[in-house]
Amino acid sequence: MNQRSNFIIDTYLMTKRSTIAIFRNPFIFIPNIMISLFFLLVYQAGLSGISNIPAFEGASYLAFILPVSIVSGAIGGSGGAGQSLVRDLENGYFSRLLLTPTSRVAIVLGPIIAGMIQLFIQTVLILLVGLWMGLDIAAGFGGAVVVILLAAGFGLAFAGYSVGFALRTKDAQASQAGTFVFFPLVFLSTTFVPYELIEADWLKFVSKINPTTYVFDGMRSVLINGWEAQPLIYAAIVIIIICSITITFASLSAKRAVNRD
């Protein structure tokens, strides 16, 4: 019981420290938020006429494109988690932590959870802008909560990768750049049109196996159609699988870093 209590306290303290470090440097997250909002405004202004196509069945294009802005922001913003850890590696704080009784798992989880908190706030801001632009959420307030949770979960997965990559490279720029390799996932999906309107067979295939597609579907289901179980279940399964992989990667990277130090 005492060990569990110590782990919770350690995780809280490491999360608090990483969160303060992220928000102390606004240039870590403000550009990412601005880019996400820019995408939202441009896509809505330039492509909203697509929603007149019968395949959209009268759905709002703003509700359709909003998840793209949120998910791209989640991928881009996850690099902040790794950058805060790199600073600890560079200034020797990480090595000093290893000399204390602090839980090794908490040392890794702290930056990951901090990155998720950043993306949680970021998603709320994007949703508020969407509401200001006239977004009507079919599932109401509960639907907005689901969108935020899906974004936070997906962001948690990429924050885990960012932390693992940071521990491997020990370089802030490499840690930030490492997350951008996932940006093609955003566009090799049902990004701008429904699956039925994708013409290229290869893109249909890639979209079908792309995990981002299922996160898009989960968010769009509550924004456009209301409560539908299947898209939400698929989105949750995808997020759980990716989180398991990336957090395991972060844990193994931490063990490697500990052995080196």
UniProtKB/TrEMBL annotation:
Transmembrane segments: 21-41, 61-86, 107-135, 141-167, 179-198, 232-252
InterPro entries, per the entry: ABC2_TM (IPR013525), ABC2_TM_bact-type (IPR047817), ABC_2_transport (IPR000412), Nod_factor_ABC_transporter (IPR051784)
Protein name: Transport permease protein
Pfam families listed in its UniProt record: ABC2_membrane (PF01061)
Keywords: Cell membrane, Membrane, Transmembrane, Transmembrane helix, Transport
Keyword Transmembrane part of the UniProt annotation: yes
Coiled coil: none
Subcellular location: Cell membrane; Membrane
Keyword Oxidoreductase: no
Domain ABC transmembrane type-2: 27-257
Membrane topology: Multi-pass membrane protein
Family named by the database record: Belongs to the ABC-2 integral membrane protein family.
Record-linked PANTHER family: ABC-TYPE MULTIDRUG TRANSPORT SYSTEM, PERMEASE COMPONENT (PTHR43229:SF3), NODULATION PROTEIN J (PTHR43229)
